[in-house]
Amino acid sequence: DVVMTQTPVSLSVSLGNQASISCRSSQSLLHSDGNTYLSWYLQKPGQSPQLLIYLASNRFSGVSNRFSGSGSGTDFTLKISRVEPEDLGVYYCFQHTHLPLTFGSGTKLEIK
Amino acid sequence: QVTLKESGPGMLQPSKTLSLTCSFSGFSLSTSGMVVSWIRQPSGKSLEWLAAIDWDGDKYYNPSLKSRLTVSKDTSNTQVFLKITSVDTADTATYYCARADTMGISGDFDYWGQGVMVTVSS
């Protein structure tokens, strides 16, 4: 199985500041079709996960441009600029290049 | 408008079979590219993908649980089912179903159900 390692485990950020989350996979996520199937999800308290970023760097419909994804191969980053109160929750990276599909262990974003 | 909703027994005893239903609307599982997956999350822990079924009836399982899992769909293509045999306390979790459109932008889970809590206890 592809292991997705996220750091940090938790993050406390002041409103208006930037947050950065790292995700490293145990195998390259570059698919033979040329796509890199790495996504980022946010799970707000008491809610189901919601898709933020797909194919490593594309924002899903309706997602604020304060969220940006980057990376390739095995190293990926999610950046949240100008953190707002509604950004709090747990962020998960996710890969669907290889079966079984796997999620990272999560990064909890708290607001200072 | 795409919606999914999970239903299940709430609580069951160890060694029993867990049966879950995902009822959805706003799309048909007979449409090319559509996939419904089951994902679970123990309280305070991360997400674990369990199984998926696609528009063609092909099924995919997490090998770690494969011998205990059966995913299926109904003939109207508006419900997906998951059975987990021989449950124990480690199967206590919130179970989600989620849709992916592999003919869409990326095949990611773009719609999720609200989740159903299942507790395994004697």
Task: Sum this structure up briefly.
Chain A has 112 residues and is mainly beta. Chain A contains no helices and 11 strands. In chain A, the strands form 2 sheets. In chain A, strands 2, 4, 5, 6, 9, 10 and 11 form a 7-stranded mixed sheet that branches. Chain A has a 4-stranded antiparallel sheet with strand order 1-3-8-7, with no helix packed on it.
Textual characterization of the structure:
The complex is a heterodimer of chains A (112) and B (122). Chain A has 112 residues and is mostly beta strands. Chain A has strands spanning 4-7, 10-13, 19-25, 38-43, 50-54, 58-59, 67-72, 75-80, 89-95, 102-103, 107-111. In chain A, strands 2, 4, 5, 6, 9, 10 and 11 form a 7-stranded mixed sheet that branches. Chain A has a 4-stranded antiparallel sheet with strand order 1-3-8-7, with no helix packed on it. Chain B is mainly β. Chain B is built from no helices and 11 strands. Chain B has strands spanning 3-7, 11-12, 18-25, 34-41, 48-54, 59-61, 69-73, 79-84, 93-101, 109-112, 116-120. In chain B, strands 2, 4, 5, 6, 9, 10 and 11 form a 7-stranded mixed sheet that branches. A 4-stranded antiparallel sheet of chain B has the order 1-3-8-7, with no helix packed on it. Chain B is globular, with a radius of gyration of 14 Å. The model of chain B has no long low-confidence stretch (mean pLDDT 96).
